[in-house]
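Q: How do we represent a protein-ligand complex in a form that can be generated token by token?
A: Start from the inputs.
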Amino acid sequence: MEPGGELELARHHAVVTGGGRGIGAAIAESLAKLGASVSLISRNAEALEATASRIGENHGVKVAIAAADLTDQAAVQKAIPKVADALGPPTILVNNAGVAVSSPFLRSDTAFWRKLLDTDLMAAVYCTQAVLPAMLESNWGRIINIASTAGLSGYAYITAYCAAKHALIGLTRALAMETVRTGVTVNAVCPGYTETDMTTHSVENIMQKTHRTREEAISSLVSRNPQGRLIQPSEVADTVAWLSRDNAASITGQCIVVAGGELMP
Ligand code: NAP
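Then emit the structure tokens for the protein with NAP bound:
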């Protein structure tokens, strides 16, 4: 709480891509808890509406939604102005929307590579291009890219996902330097396996391909984390909220790993 009783992010408008469910919904909730108005953008309008009304009711903040496929640059160029008209120019952008699909390298065709790179890298590029000019004009901004431990290390059977997330971290570091004296910070958050639909699909994929039970499949993922557990979406979300605060102004170009000690970059 700021002097005068105002919540710390009360004057801010945060855009969270993929904010209808999973980590994105938890991020939107954490930012709303600090008083930010939030916009949720992804393809599924029904999920966006349900999450938006829950956040609005729980936290009393304004919430806008825009349904868009973020791999389509023209759709991004409509969605960002739509939410900016509703809630003002975005001051915080969380590039969270993503897709993780595994495939052995020699069975991954060009369409597969394009889908992963378009969703996990280019969507963040398009959204950042759309919000950065107004951030630079106001001398304040937070761009937070949800990468992954797969952005910092290699894992078998996810070459395209690893390549896209490594590239997202490269984007983070280079843009952080390009904006270093502007009041805009650019950081990445790198979760390990987190309890969302994405991990449920990974578990089902392991069960199908290796004939293991659900428990065995979950424990093969959990065994990567020295704490022996899945990360909770709220843990990733609170890291994003911390990076969004005024007092995080000197943190830029960083990758914050939220993975129970799995990596120590
Ligand atoms: P999730 O439950 O599968 O949610 C993915 C989100 O991305 C959904 O909101 C989805 O919304 C959105 N999305 C996907 N493709 C999109 C597109 N083309 N256009 C617009 N929105 C799109 O996944 P999650 O676990 O919350 O993951 C969120 C982020 O964290 C991802 O970037 C992921 O790579 C990263 N991450 C996750 C884990 C994990 O273990 N779960 C670990 C490390 C990093 P719609 O379906 O409505 O479009």
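The longest strand covers residues 184-191. The mean pLDDT is 97.
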